Amino acid sequence: MNKGKISASMMCSNLVDLKKTIEIFEKEKIEYLHIDMMDGDFVPNFGLGVDYIRSLRELTSIPLDLHLMINNPEYKLEWIGIHSDDIVSIHYESTTQVQRVMDRVKKYGCKCFLAINPATPIYVLEEVLDYIDGINLLMVNPGYAGQKMVSSTMNKAKKLHEFLKENKHEDMTVEVDGNISPIKAQELKKYGASIYVAGTTALFKGDVDDFSDNIRKLRSVI
Fold it and tell me: How many domains does the chain divide into?
């Protein structure tokens, strides 16, 4: 089985230690930097913006995992500066033109994931399985860092795994996002998870000098 990948949730990082944090991530070969973009409308919070992304690009070549918690993303993609090795996740509920948005995302040569909220029914995937490169399964309600996992989402991960098998897409990339601890990551791996968004529960805890150990603990179980 392929080893899992880590996507570091930059919303949980400390800007004061950003340069040192990135240096550690490069040393530990973090696969992605997870960027939560929020518009205050689709979710009740503002997140990391395009200026932050430009600054991050100047610091590192680590690909970005862009989680777009914004309404009508089809009109805002060009603002972001998407690279071909990035991941872009859009929410099913954020647009009335899901497949059109996916087509626009893929013009950048990057991977396009569909983000599924805890309350989003799995059946919405039926019409788009052949269009997407992966699924971002949210284990918390979107909008805030540091939340506890919604209790039903572990069972939802199991049901998603069964759904993908039934629809002959068992090799679909599944990213899990929200309150991912090493213990929960180990269980989610059984349900096909292969990218783990690491925030305050797994990575950004303790001092910046603790991050390497935190990364290695997570890697040991994924």
Answer: 1
**Span 119-133, average pLDDT:** 94
- What's CA 84's distance to the chain center, in Å? 16
Query: Which class for 73: exposed (0-12), middle (13-18), buried (19 or more C-beta within 10 A)?
Result: buried
pLDDT digits (tens, 9 = 90+) for 148-180: 777 789 999 999 999 999 999 999 999 999 899
Among the listed residues 75, 96, 97, 104, the one whose alpha carbon sits nearest the alpha carbon of residue 88: 104
Using the predicted structure, report yes or no on whether residue 54 has a pLDDT greater than 80.
yes
Looking at the whole model, is its pTM more than 0.85? yes
Strand pairing class (87-91; 111-116): parallel
- Tell me the DSSP string of 77-108: HHHH---TT-EEEEEGGG-S-HHHHHHHHHTT
pLDDT number for residue 40: 84
Over residues 93-104, the mean pLDDT reads 93
Tokens coding 144: 């805030």
Residue 14: which domain range?
A: 5-219
User: Would you give the DSSP letter of residue 123?
Assistant: G
CATH number for the domain harbouring residue 31: 3.20.20.70
Joined tokens for residue 136:
């971002």
Neighbouring CB atoms inside 10 A of 19's CB total 10
Q: What span, in angstroms and rounded, lies between the C-alpha atoms of 4 and 51?
A: 30
Q: Which two tokens stand for residue 220?
A: 């040991």
Residues in contact with 210: Cβ distance below 8 Å, sequence separation at least 6, in sequence order? none
Q: Which two three-digit tokens encode residue 146?
A: 């540091």
